[in-house]
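Anyone else keep sequences and structure tokens together like this?

Example one:
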Amino acid sequence: MSDEFILETHGLTKEFAGFVAVRDVSLRVRRGSIHALIGPNGAGKTTCFNLLTKFLTPTKGQILYKGQDITALKPADIARLGLVRSFQISAVFPHLTALENVRVALQRQHGNSFDFWRSKDVLNVYNDRALALLEDVGLSEFAKTPAVEMPYGRKRALEIATTLALDPEMMLLDEPMAGMGHEDIDKIAALIKRISAKHTILMVEHNLNVVANLSDIITVLTRGHVLAEGNYADLTKDERVKEAYLGAGHG
């Protein structure tokens, strides 16, 4: 594996009681890129993400991260290596403020447990970094707002902030635009573009406009296997992609 690729899979396969959800998927994610995984419903995108982050164990195949075989590692070990999945591992605590949520994530990154009973003075050492992260994702004005009271799109930005607090080298974003209106989509897309300057990003996304505008490389899955790969302009000319993906709708 060359240094050019931060994540690779070889022959990744997952069977469930005779049903093959992911079949012989080989991916190569270039360091520093935004790589999108798209395909119709049932194409195997979420199963792929679950395999990469070790929430599922592959039936066959190999996963390499920064040249290390991580196929047999546990989810927590993967996160410690710097491969972090957002919107699942970084659940937001609804009744904590945005600042408190990021502080909890920073506390975790520094090897401490969620010690809610510790004095506030102990947690205050994380304030400057937490405020900087909130500023990075455009949430400075929400620092003292409980997460439950934040608009939906801002809550998703907070989830990205808590993921960034874990200092990942690579982020896996699972449908970051799901359930958003146009204004929020534009804000989160701009945020993903900004953080991609320092982090490699692999994302599953249904919104094709977002994929077109953000992605360097796109892998199209259908029925569990890789149908095509390339940039958006090339894929829109590919008749197989039109038939399998665009023809099937992208809901």
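And example two:
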Amino acid sequence: MKLKGSIVIAFSGRKYLMVRHSQRAWEFPGGRIEGDESPLETAKREFREETGLRGEDWRDCGVARLENGNLALFRCRASGKPVPETGEIAEARYFTAPPFNLSFERSEYFELLGMAGWRAKPKTDYDTASREFDCLRGKTAGDEIWAGAIAKWGKVNKYDRVLDIGCGTGRHSITLAETYGADVCGLDYSGGMLSKANAKRGGCWLRADASTLPVASGTFDTALLILVLQHVDDEPMAISEAKRALRPGGRLLIATVSHSRIRRHISRLFPSLVRLDTDRFMSVPELRWHLADHGFTGIRTGIMRTDKKIEPVEGIVERFRRRFISTLALVPEKDFERNMATFERRLRKEYGDSVETDVEITFIGARKQA
């Protein structure tokens, strides 16, 4: 089989390196085989030239049969800051999701990632979760705090058209409509969650994926992605769709959990949860980079933090056992009870019989250019 060249996917944890050529968009490092080079020699040479790094633990991942030719695919581990050694490369960066502007078809990049061992995020079954979702997160005073923060950061005004992407059971959609007078359309992938939303209040509820919105372009004043992107494998595509739905000058508001918060939260005491959540939640700096890459302006970051309250350990353990956060649903059933016992033991050792808790959410607001 004739090979056109070699391509490299270099991982640093879940992140991987990509480069932007001066004459092309973003792609994985690689290039044509020269002279009597082996495919691996080509991969190492091109990787060094394009990133300034050498990589470790090189592995052959087979041949990628792409539209523009057959390429030998290799993976390696990378560390350190990439500094290209050739003027052909304008920029090299680590990502957890490919930038929106790519040199080739987007599907090819995910095909290459899969060949190199990358796996999609594990998904929560929200049709099942919807049965108890409102019991665990029902209407509370906290809903008003959330709605106030969303209205503030999203600059939601009366009669504004708001698209709530990943609306769940309508918790925020309904409060924004009833308290702030917004005209809200809620969208979610889970039919079970939408059924719960519609039972609370009739209105515009659509079932769809965040990466393919069934709405006309330029029709909304504000688009919301409230604790949604951690469920999405292609965050830049979801951001692009939200941008498309916005009118010129419209606002996008993302709510997420920072990696710093994940490492400070009491869930750090539950085995495997920190790793699961830092893999699922894109870091705040990377999210800001993708927003700028999409052409958003006025990108601002802020923190919503509720008042601290004292909770008995028994109540916290019970909420964890009922999987009140989506990450807990991703823990294998065979491990769950053992991990729960470890969590409770660690919780009592560190805090005693009660724990001071609060909610901390990072909001990132941005404006589509007029």
